[in-house]
Amino acid sequence: GVHVLVWSIASQKGGVGKTTTVASLAGWCQRENLRVLIIDTDPHASLTSYMGFDYNNIEKSLYDLYTIDSLDEESVRSCITHTNFQNLDLIASSMTLATIDRKLSGRAGVGRILTNALKIIDDDYDVALIDCPPVLGALMVNALVASTSVLVPTQTEFLSLKGLEGMVRTFVIMKKADSSCNVNYTVIPTMYDKRTRASRTSLEFLYTHYKDHLWPGQIPIDTLFRESSQKGVPITMLDEHCRGALA
Fold first, then answer.
1. Residue 110 has pLDDT above 70, yes or no
2. Residues 201, 223, 34, 124, CA torsion sign
3. How confident is the prediction for the chain on average, in pLDDT?
4. What's this model's pTM, rounded to 2 decimal places?
């Protein structure tokens, strides 16, 4: 089995803090001297740009990983981009990833390509963090199947709760399709503002309906999140003592 801790960050709603969660966790893990690999599986490539890269200038991306004929150490490593931060590497996204479902259709074992790739570079990293696309397709399935744990950031407002419902339904569907795929998920309340009724009501709803899967804290609204994404650095490197970073 894979010894790397693999966490996917997934939600079927956009703008709930998926990419920010990946970047922030990566920053903390890197500070703890863990060797971190972050994987951008969303064709919109927001994690790739968060880390300061333009996907047009990336030599090899996740798309190349999915289209390699045979996976071995050399071919998997060739798809990894080193970031400006020590012990923090990236498998970048590219727009071509949007065509991957068509490209892979009919091939055997397409749901396990990422799992197999991570097994091959098992010794290189301690943690892999995967930013997922919002749609259920080959990219999300690969991420979820490879995961030891799935974090579902959920903005504390009504529409996001609907997105969470859809996400949990997806986990059930996947388990039915493949009984070995047991998704172990944790709901992370994000963009929480205790002064607003919407935030408080949403949090109550989460406690009522997702108690067994709910992370006990909340990620507050913090303007430094936006600033860190504009500067292309995880929030921990801007100000590790700010509310957002601590949460």
1. yes
2. positive
3. 93
4. 0.94
